[in-house]
Amino acid sequence: MMTPQITNFRSLGGYSTANGTTKDGLLYRSGQLADLSDSQVDFLANDLKIKRIVDMRGADELSKDPDTTWPGADYENLDILADATANNASLGRMITETGSVYDNMMFTYEQLATSNSARQGYKTFLTQLVEKDEPTVFHCFAGKDRTGVGAAIILTSVGVSEDQVFEDYLKTNASRQIENEKILKSLEGQLTEEQLKSVGVALRVNPDYLKHFFDTAKKEFGSFDAYLHDGLSLPTYFEDRLIEQYVK
């Protein structure tokens, strides 16, 4: 089934685990779902039968580019970086923030592991996944950082190997290539060459970022399992229920 050009949209199905393979048709990650065409909405609503949209963006992003929704799908906003001291995942911040883009992104991934809003947001998102296994799409602006961490938590929790978790994460660089080129083209003449280069770096994912998320979570809470149960306060049955519902 061909996806009608929704940027950075893909299924979390088809990854092998110790217990089987992650199911297709239930979990999808994406870039923002603003200004969707009729064919894109038809694909999401009728072909994939998506019943739940989880938007991980902040208020400024929502007001600028609200999601396209459709009847029969519940929409929820979980502002993952609301409590972050500097939301370097937003494009505006990428352009104006001083210092190394790499360092700023590493700091953002620390906040994705430790900030109150990230922990509460991921807790809510993951709790709802095990309460009802209905077709769900989750996204942020680019579908790479807040969304990338959410996907990595899910895949790791059901026993997908680290190599496959990072493989899924890094698919973003190919999936966003055309859109990233459009963004950089639109900024030509408005930014210096150095700023354009920084935005280009910031629009891509780097395995160091995701590794830093996991390292920070383990350092802060002791282990990934402790991150789930102490950091996110997920119930003891969380992993078993997630495997039961999303692995075949």
Describe this structure in words.
With 248 residues, this protein is of the alpha/beta class. Helices cover 53% and strands 9% of the residues. The chain is built from twelve helices and seven strands. The strands form two sheets. A five-stranded mixed sheet has the order 1-4-7-5-6, with helices on one face. A two-stranded antiparallel ribbon has the order 2-3. A hairpin with a 2-residue loop joins β2 and β3. α4 packs parallel to α10, α6 runs antiparallel to α7 and α10 crosses α11. The protein is globular. The two termini are 21 Å apart. The mean pLDDT is 92.
Please, what is the average pLDDT?
A: 92
Q: Output the radius of gyration.
A: 17 Å
Strand order of the largest sheet: 1-4-7-5-6
Task: Give unreliable regions as ranges.
Answer: none
Termini separation comes to 21 Å
Q: How many strand elements? A: 7
Q: Give me the strand/helix succession.
A: EEEEHEHEHHHEHHHHHHH
Q: Strand portion, in percent?
A: 5-15%
Layout of secondary structure:
Blueprint lengths: L9 E2 L4 E2 L2 E2 L5 E4 L7 H10 L4 E4 L3 H6 L9 E4 L13 H6 L4 H14 L1 H16 L4 E4 L6 H12 L4 H14 L1 H11 L5 H10 L4 H15 L2 H8 L6 H9 L2
